Amino acid sequence: MCALVSNVYCVGRNYQLHAAELGNAVPEEPMIFLKPSHAVVPLDGSVLQLPLDRGSLHFEGELVIQAARDYEPGMSVDELVDTMALGIDFTLRDVQSVIKEKGHPWTAAKAFKSSAPLTASIAFPGTESLADTDFTVIKNGEEVQRGNVKDMIFSLQTIVDYIGKHYGLGKGDLIFTGTPAGVGPTVSGDVFELYWGDVRLGRCEIG
Question: Which DSSP string do the residues of the chain spell out, in sequence order?
Fold first, then answer.
């Protein structure tokens, strides 16, 4: 999946409990931000070198879909997407707090190198079947996040239509679809495992 990456779109505050845990208002329309393609690295057991010297670094596990073709108005998610993965949106939380107060873009907090590690891809099961399975983030052997598309504020269809209309959505583009509650800090030596149901799709250690 990583080799074909073009644009990396991310959806902020797409689970109500996550918005609540950070004290944020629930958005009235999808909140979209971008990461560079350099942020995407494989979650293949490697050690990730992240900027731990820049304040608190938080993990945010997410379901990630990839466009298999260029979006056209009226296209369904099932027509657009044929593969998916799990990823982590690493966030420099202290940096984000400062730039939010100043009204600055989130780039410094969200878009640093290796901030969007991604598991190997699997076949997209279709929107009707997707809610049958939870995804989970395991940190140091303990479950810290559990998510399901049925708990999203904005559906996958709403998200792809919104991005396609306002920004454009082409073959190879990734969409990080938002994180459920349970985000938290990470430090050197932490090990993350990402599961789709009972299948582990990826693993990494923080260097």
Answer: -GGG---EEEEES-BHHHHHHTTPPPPSS-EEEEE-GGG--B-EEEEE---GGGS-EEE-EEEEEEESS---TT--HHHHEEEEEEEE--EEHHHHHHHHHHT--SHHHH-STT-S-BPPPEE---HHHHTT--EEEEETTEEEEEE-GGGBSS-HHHHHHHHHHHT---TT-EEE----S--EE--TT-EEEEEETTEEEEEEEE-
The whole-angstrom separation of Cα 176 and Cα 116 is: 9
As a whole number of angstroms, the distance between CA 183 and CA 90 comes to 10
Quote the CA–CA distance of 140 and 12 in Å, as a whole number: 25
d(CA 8, CA 117): 12
pLDDT band at 4 (very low <50, low <70, confident <90, very high): low
59-91 exposure pattern, b = at least 16 Cβ within 10 A, e = fewer: bbbbbbbbbeeebeeebebeebbebbbbbbbbb
Residue 24's pLDDT band (boundaries 50, 70, 90)? confident
How would you classify the pairing of strands 44-48 and 31-35?
unpaired
